Amino acid sequence: MIDDPYFPATSMPDPDWWQTLWPDPDRVVKDLGARSGLATLDVCCGDGRFTPALCRAVAPAMVQAIDLDAGELDLARRACADENCENAEFVQADVSDLSLSIAEPQDFVFIANTFHGIPDKLMFAEGVQRILKPDGRLVIVNWHDTDRRLTTVDGKARGPTTGMRLSPKACAESIFAAGFALCNVVELEPYHYGAVFEPTS
Question: Is the pTM for the entire model greater than 0.85?
């Protein structure tokens, strides 16, 4: 995801420490509920850190990877090609309202490490609601609301500013009015959690 006024402080991190932080994306997506047959949307996919893992987990279903940044989408496309993932499609679009760019109903909507930067979280969630199947799931991977000085990787503080971070409760409250209920929180050590939501209407 590019660093722009729509999604502040969500530019892609250095790939070296990103790999250190997320050494096993396959385990992460499976722990969060990705499984075979789920039509999946990888929102703000960036360089595709999780896209191949999602492709493997939900195959033969398709994964649509969406990002505003064409350069990041090219990297995600390359990552999938390098890992022989043939069930991926790539969409360049603003994700503020996903229903404007995604037509097919989705089983599993996944957004990692960028939700904190979405200015209008309720509008985003309303867009997800419009494309999510009644028994679908929205999964949000967030940094815990920990002081940034304490979330170090390779000896340096990493992640969004302390003030942008959300607890699971605050994350849930930000999208409650869109018709989502928090059904599970998965700890993703050392600094993240995955909040799993189900539609209530």
Answer: yes
